[in-house]
Amino acid sequence: METALTIAGSDSSGGAGIQADLKTFSALKVYGMSVITAVTAQNTTGVRSIATIPTNIIQDQMEAVLEDIPVGAVKIGMLSSSHVIKTVVSTLVNVKATNIVLDPVMVSKSGHHLLEYEAVQTLKEDLIPIATIVTPNLPEAEAILGRKILCEEDMKEACQQLNELGPKYVLLKGGHLEGDPVDVLYDGTEFHHFYQERILTKNTHGTGCTLSSAIAAHLAKGNSVVDSVHLAKEYITGAIQHSISIGQGHGPTHHFH
Ligand code: PLP
């Protein structure tokens, strides 16, 4: 049985975070496991409060899983602080984890900070270099690189700059630009462009979490990174097309359709 582990925050409304990741793993028929880094009290309209889990408990969760069960791929989401990042990095390096998909979660769609501002430097120096693939959206890439990204040509340059930080692949998601979205995948030599018609819906809560965990699930099944991104793009497109209008804010994507 293929397995995948998510290291991320809990979303009480079930649309993003750990819950989105586990639903994605199940839908893609991969056995899912979870290390919870933070508990958020939130619904489709926003985040009310956040409790970060103590780093010794995060490390214990990781070691308990990794010492016992073979992990085919690891997806990393919300990490809250520099301390949490350092704990996660040292544990992953100790066990020589492979197939690491990093979604550099920073701010929720409702505008809540899910990563301390000062932690961006630690993310850059310690975590991005060990990632197999890093999947920022445009605001996250801008925060990491300290520059604006205004068009597809800028995206290609930004991919090259992100690649210099050390990950094997960069998937830069262009959904924040106007018009039909384009995502750019870069492996250090070649660019792949993913074009998609914009799906008109307000139900986009948890899309980043779902895409990155779908990439992890496909890597766990033995696919190449490029194939995993292709398959995960197909999965997230279906999940947005079938998204659910529940709650008063941004509804969630749907995993079983
Ligand atoms: N809450 C948690 C726990 C998350 O991990 C994420 C992931 O990005 C979010 C919220 C953000 O979701 P959204 O950007 O859809 O608001």
UniProtKB/TrEMBL annotation:
Recorded superkingdom: Bacteria
Pathway in which the depicted protein is active: Cofactor biosynthesis; thiamine diphosphate biosynthesis; 4-amino-2-methyl-5-diphosphomethylpyrimidine from 5-amino-1-(5-phospho-D-ribosyl)imidazole: step 2/3; Cofactor biosynthesis; thiamine diphosphate biosynthesis; 4-amino-2-methyl-5-diphosphomethylpyrimidine from 5-amino-1-(5-phospho-D-ribosyl)imidazole: step 3/3
Key words, A-Z: Kinase, Thiamine biosynthesis, Transferase
Annotated GO MF terms: hydroxymethylpyrimidine kinase activity; phosphomethylpyrimidine kinase activity
Reactions this protein catalyses: 4-amino-5-hydroxymethyl-2-methylpyrimidine + ATP = 4-amino-2-methyl-5-(phosphooxymethyl)pyrimidine + ADP + H(+); 4-amino-2-methyl-5-(phosphooxymethyl)pyrimidine + ATP = 4-amino-2-methyl-5-(diphosphooxymethyl)pyrimidine + ADP
Gene3D superfamilies assigned: 3.40.1190.20
The family this protein is said to belong to: Belongs to the ThiD family.
UniProt protein name: Hydroxymethylpyrimidine/phosphomethylpyrimidine kinase
Primary gene name: thiD
